[in-house]
Amino acid sequence: MPDFDLAIVGGGINGVGIARDAAGRGLRVLLVEQNDLASGTSSASTKLIHGGLRYLEHGWFRLVREALTEREVMLRMAPHLIRPMRFVLPAEPGMRPAWQLRLGLFVYDHLGGRKILPATRSLDLTADPHGATLKGRYRYGFEYSDCVADDARLVVLNAVDAAARGALIRTRTRCLRADRAELWNLVLDVRGRREVATARVLINATGPWLGHFTESVLQQPAPAALRLDKGSHIVVRRLFGHDRGYIFQTADHRVVFVLPYERDFTLIGTTDSGFSGDPAAVAPSADEIKYLCTVANDHLRVVISPADVVWAFAGVRSLHDDGANAPQDAMRDYVLVLDEQPAEAPLLTVYGGKITTYRRLAEAALDRLAPVLGARPAWTKKSSLPGGDFPVDGVARLVAQARRSWPFLSEAHIRRLVQAYGTRISRILGPAKQIDDLGDRLGADLTGAEVRYLMDHEWARTADDVLWRRSKLGLRVSPEEKKQLAKFMANAIGSDG
Ligand SMILES: Cc1cc2nc3c(=O)[nH]c(=O)nc-3n(C[C@H](O)[C@H](O)[C@H](O)COP(=O)(O)OP(=O)(O)OC[C@H]3O[C@@H](n4cnc5c(N)ncnc54)[C@H](O)[C@@H]3O)c2cc1C
Questions:
Q1: Out of 70, 139, 198, 497, which residue is the most buried by the measure of CB atoms under 10 Å away?
Q2: How far apart are CA 473 and CA 349, in angstroms?
């Protein structure tokens, strides 16, 4: 008997999404991630849970419909983590005409069975307060709905739920070799120690490492249909005080988002360019940073320069190559390739995908594998992610309740915890009556109690896991505080043995 029904390599959104769904269907699941959860592309997205307005121009209606529908499914699954945002789209003189924008937004409003999110409306940007942030040339535009999420926390919460349903999640565990016979025989490197495991099915969910994994671990020829595209983002101090995001059309026929981010910041992205090389070393180039500043300066009254950038990050998409010339035209839908050989265990390879559609991708993966693993009913559509078991409009109520329970914490602190942990906030704060009951103060509003929770329940092992993937407190702590946090975590690991 094999150790597992399903072995998944890759702890990005696609790997953990499949792990959660499969574990919930009663399958025995192993997921291995060579580094931290979400340490690849899944923490480097634009953070949009969106249909993809621009994709309508490409005629990708299947993808847009599915993604639009998923926005509200996900909002219900994780109302703490995912929140609606209104986007201002100014009509740009000399670019797509207003009738085309209006038509696109009409389709966008109606394609995905929208129930919760408000509809599009026209804006007179000469009078609307959200026009005041923009350069004077804009006369009118539109405001439409999409959602935003903390992408990395979405990954972590899927892993938490997968584990609660019986999946074995192993971080800092690299799959070194996968030998195929009637079963898969895996050789794993667990922080320097070798382990082996067997599974009936292997899923390659390694994202931008897909080609490398195929060649060096599976020892198969490089996949011909793989295309890697890089995108970069910058973060600067807050450029405007309101809660709307902007979507700007650029002269090179792309769009760039400018979004309110983490209360005190603004996120700007993305670029699009072909990529080759080591995905672990991907970083924004000086030219990309300059380009994003220029796009912001072309549209906003305020002026920024690369010196204003407090954080920049880049990610790589691993797309199924549809032969498009420009990176922004390459198809963003997911493609699942099932490799079945007589008397050999199957291999499923995941190309592309979006944070937005990961849940549907997982369902599609299990449908493809049903002939091997057995057909079991889908269940995730009406489920909650950990901490998300409250109504979609319930964040304010949860914040108010939490403020009554822990009145010694500031509103901003409580709000951050509610948005990260939802109803599980009490697992961190427990019976605390004063701030000292929460242990060490570790920079910004981070406490020992929260870090211990992240280490015990969310696989956090390093300061970066906590500061950049379980939270975005990396934007707020000093290098000294980061060192103190690393020391705290090393001591905790040491004392846990
Ligand atoms: C710039 C950019 C912006 C985007 N914006 C959005 C957006 O706004 N909204 C949206 O819905 N989507 C967006 N996307 C798409 C989305 O981010 C990706 O489709 C998604 O994150 C891909 O997830 P993944 O799990 O396939 O890959 P990854 O997140 O990269 O995960 C793969 C994992 O496999 C691990 N791995 C590799 N090899 C091994 C091995 N041998 N052993 C163990 N582990 C291994 C890696 O460490 C990595 O963590 C964006 C993508 C990019 C690049």
A1: 70
A2: 34
pLDDT at residue 34 is higher than 90: yes
- What pLDDT sits at residue 327? 76
Average model confidence (pLDDT) across the chain: 96
Determine the atom of ligand 1 nearest the C-alpha atom of 15. 25
**How far is ligand 1, taken at its centre, from the CA of residue 207, in Å?**
5
Q: Calculate the dihedral angle through the C-alpha atoms of 271, 275, 277, 280, rounding to the nearest 10 degrees.
A: 40
* Minimum mean pLDDT range among 70-74, 196-200, 253-257, 398-402: 253-257
**Is the CB of 45 inside a 6 Å radius of any atom of ligand 1?**
yes
Q: Is ligand 1 within 6 A of the CB of residue 270?
A: yes
Burial string for 131-150 (b: 16+ CB within 10 Å, else e) reads: bebbeeebebbbbbbbbbbb
Residue 58's pLDDT band (boundaries 50, 70, 90)? confident
pLDDT per residue as tens digits for the range 426-458:
999 999 999 999 999 999 999 999 999 999 999
Average the pLDDT over 54-80 and give the result. Answer: 94
10 lines ligand 1 (CB under 6 A): yes
Going by CA atoms, what residue is nearest to atom 4 of ligand 1?
45
Does residue 426's CB lie within 6 angstroms of at least one atom of ligand 1? no
* Alpha-carbon gap, residue 362 to 211, rounded angstroms: 21
**pLDDT above 90 coverage of the chain, percent:** 91
* 289-302 tens-digit pLDDT: 999 999 999 999 99
* 479-486, Cβ contacts within 8 angstroms, sequence gap of 24 or more: 481/442, 481/443, 481/444, 482/443, 484/442, 484/443, 485/442, 485/443, 485/446, 485/451, 486/462
Of the chain, the end-to-end C-alpha distance in Å amounts to 32
The neighbour count for residue 111, using CB atoms within 10 Å, is 17
315 lines ligand 1 (CB under 6 A): yes
- Whether the full predicted model's pTM is greater than 0.85, yes or no, is yes
| Cβ 146 vs Cβ 71: under 8 Å | yes
d(CA 51, CA 452): 37
Beta strands in 226-369 (DSSP E): 226-237, 245-249, 255-261, 265-269, 273-274, 309-320, 335-339, 347-351
